[in-house]
Amino acid sequence: MKAFQGKGTAAAKRSPAEKWKYVKRHWQLYVIFLLPGLLLTLIFKYGPMGGVLIAFEDYNVIEGILGSPWVGLEYFRRFLSSPDFADYLLNTLKLSVYGLLWGFPIPILLALLLNRIRRTGVKKNIQLLIYAPNFISVIVLCGMVRMFLSPVGPLNSLLGINTNWMTMPEAFRTIYIASGIWQTAGWSSIMYTAALSNASKDLEEAAIVDGANILQQIWYVELPAIKNIIVIQFILQAGNIMSIGFEKAYALQTDMNLPASEILSTYVYKIGLLNGDYGYSTAVGLFNSVINVILLIFVNQVVKKLNDGQGL
Q: Which of 41, 168, 172, 269 is most buried, taking the most CB atoms under 10 A from its CB?
């Protein structure tokens, strides 16, 4: 055991040049280790990117991607000039932005509250309770929401009314965002809870001795410990504003709430798979992805300026 620990210590003390020589000498091992991940990435991530060409073609299944006639930017012009373009874009942005504004702080608050619980048993039971909704599938969750908000559901029984909430466009965003927070907030708080374990206990004790209240302890001791994770998570979530989930929006969608629930991803599904207009739906999906990339770069630059040059 001592000999093994001695070898580990010696390896840790090697200079970067010696480590690089070791890697070059045993490069076959690293290739074998990385090969499965690289192959999966190439096959399932980069391989399908060739299908982007469909957005610029009058795609025909029989002729294939390489044989279909080229139409250039025709589908993009068609989509941008569509009278429904602004509605679908605004619906997508509203769901995403409101979800970010309301949903992003909740996991942080949960982690801070959990960190104040000193009894391990109580803390574990609460964590189990708030983590459990994450393991409910989206479709089951949507079924639960529909039952809960039905005219004869628990909410109407409690309020003494018989409103069909799922047919109200003005209620759709609240339902969508609130159910998403309930499902994911607990699980999203895990990384913040883990980061808070690295907060300086000495600094916390010193703050208590100096008379700092709970809010001051959180602001000056605990939040700085999770600041970097908050920044990274905010950049990633803000950069995915346009990548709102299709399954949940489609499962909660009804004919009556379409003015608020029809977003770009559900529109792409209906145009592409239901109507068979593959080229046009691919163009809309590509437009969505390009906007995401632009938002990610923009948000990263803004956060860098506000966070002393630290971003992704």
A: 172
* The pair of three-digit structure tokens given for residue 200, joined into one six-digit string: 């300086």
pLDDT at 4 over 50: no
- In a shared domain, residues 141 and 222: yes
Distance (Å, whole) CA 272 – CA 249: 17
Distance separating alpha carbons of residues 80 and 85, to the nearest angstrom: 6
Per-residue b/e over 222-251, b at no fewer than 16 CB within 10 Å?
A: beebbeebbbbbebebbbebbbbebebbbb
Phi/psi at 70 (5° precision)? -85, 135
Instruction: Say which DSSP state 255 is in.
Output: S
pTM of the predicted structure, to 2 decimals = 0.80
pLDDT confidence band for 20 (50 / 70 / 90): confident
Cross-strand bridge partners of residue 57:
70
CB-CB contact of 251 with 138 (8 Å): yes
Contact present, 220 and 272 (Cβ < 8 Å): no
Task: Mark residue 69 as left, alpha or beta (left: phi above 0; alpha: psi -120 to 50; beta: remaining).
Answer: beta
Residue 115 CA to chain centroid, in angstroms? 24
Question: SS3 for 212?
Answer: coil
Handedness of CA 210, 215, 216, 222 (dihedral sign): positive
pLDDT band at 3 (very low <50, low <70, confident <90, very high): very low
**CATH number, domain with residue 186:** 1.10.3720.10
In a domain, 56, yes or no: no
Residue 240: give the domain boundaries: 74-306
Number of CB atoms found within 10 A of residue 270's CB: 13
